[in-house]
Amino acid sequence: MSAQEIADRAGLSVTLVRRVLRTPAHDATAPDIARTAADAILGIPLPHRRTPGALGLTDSAEASWLLADLARAGWPATTLAHRLDVNPRTVAEVRDKRPRLRLDLALRIRRLHRDLINLNPAGYGIHPTDIARTRAAAARRMAATAT
After folding, report:
1. 67-103 as b/e: b if 16+ CB within 10 A
2. What's phi and psi for 42, nearest 5 deg?
């Protein structure tokens, strides 16, 4: 569910809901909210978890790691984007910097990783030069984040 949907259902301002949903920094504490606001938010029934079309955002850390893993295996972003039915720029943003993404996209990325990680990209029409370029770029990204 999005912050706006939660606010609408709970009868609260979207600003308050976003403040509650914001992940605190490692050294910060969670924000204090009034008990009535907490009760209003916690009283909202969540959508069924098995519906991949469910609205809402989730943390992109796992999806980012999965996409980086596929890049290390040689799968280019354009191929992944085509299989995910998104723009290649979206794949790059999720892999590199986007903090959150839609729940349905996160589930599709998880499924795609499960299906492709043990396969050789060359066997699926990816040119060896593209595989090598993708692996080299993934190694550069890993080296840059390690320093």
Report:
1. bbebbbbbbbbebbbebbebeeebbbbbbeeeebbbb
2. -70, -20
Same domain (yes/no): 73, 9: no
Say whether 126 sits in a helix, a strand or coil: coil
Residues 6+ away with beta carbon under 8 Å from 97? none
Please name every residue paired with 26 in a beta bridge, in sequence order, or none if there are none: none
Residues making up the chain, counted from first to last = 147
- pLDDT, one tens digit for every residue, the chain (147 residues): 788 888 877 777 888 888 877 766 665 666 666 666 666 666 655 555 555 444 677 888 899 999 999 999 999 999 999 999 999 999 999 998 888 888 888 889 999 999 999 999 999 999 999 999 999 999 998 888 776
Domain count, the chain: 2
Note the pTM of the prediction, 2 decimals: 0.62
Domain hosting 33: range is: 3-42
